[in-house]
């Protein structure tokens, strides 16, 4: 089975997790990181999930899953080892064309969750199409060492001036040229060492007079 890689906007959307154990906990934390509205269906919760419920971060239906529970869901994750519950969740999700992931059972999924490295808005995902989650985890650990917090700052800096470049009335090819030229091999080193003057000088050399507005102030707002 081949899976089509895609990034979903789940902000404010109801995502239901069936199960309240450690696997469910990991899934819930991932959903909350993307600002989803999360509802957990389970008689019991882990300590972490209980804390999230007490803080009002998640909804909790304190019982076993029942057919009909998924009516309003945008996305569903079944994090339970109970075969009959998995089948019922699968059947209901299929009947309503819902996005469904059944943890560790790829044949009952219409999407899978890759191993993910996240630095702010930079997201790097690794998938083996369910063939070797252990390899995906290994690669994730390696990538976490390679792409540190400096990349979160870099993405924010580049994002701070992107809208002004696009609003400058240049052609698409000119915009693409600028975006390419803005990327310098030493940028992450400058960020790590706080060498902001080198970063600003580089941007000024690339942008020259082609981009008007307060782009420099927008860049500085990220790190000042």
Number of strands: 7
Shape summary: elongated
**Quick one: biggest sheet?**
5 strands, parallel
Q: Helical amount among residues, as a percent range?
A: 40-55%
- Portion of residues in beta strands equals 5-15%
Low-confidence stretches: none
How would you describe this structure in keywords?
224 residues; Rossmann fold; five-stranded parallel β-sheet; two-stranded antiparallel sheet; 7 strands; 14% strand; elongated
List the helices and strands and how they pair.
Elements: E1 14-18, H1 22-32, E2 37-41, H2 47-54, E3 59-61, E4 75-78, H3 83-95, E5 99-102, E6 115-119, E7 122-126, H4 133-146, H5 149-166, H6 172-182, H7 187-193, H8 196-207, H9 215-223
Parallel strand pairs: 1-2, 1-4, 2-3, 4-5
Antiparallel strand pairs: 6-7
Helix pairs in contact: 5-6, 5-7, 5-9
Kindly describe this structure.
With 224 residues, the protein is an alpha/beta fold. It has 3 domains: 1-113, 3-Layer(aba) Sandwich (Rossmann fold), CATH 3.40.50; 114-147, 2-Layer Sandwich (Double Stranded RNA Binding Domain), CATH 3.30.160; 149-223, no CATH class. The chain is 46% helix and 14% strand. The chain has helices spanning 22-32, 47-54, 83-95, 133-146, 149-166, 172-182, 187-193, 196-207, 215-223, and strands at residues 14-18, 37-41, 59-61, 75-78, 99-102, 115-119, 122-126. The strands form 2 sheets. It has a 5-stranded parallel sheet with strand order 3-2-1-4-5, sandwiched between helices.
Brief summary:
By secondary structure, the chain is α/β, with parallel strands linked by helices. It has helices at residues 22-32, 47-54, 83-95, 133-146, 149-166, 172-182, 187-193, 196-207, 215-223, and strands at residues 14-18, 37-41, 59-61, 75-78, 99-102, 115-119, 122-126.
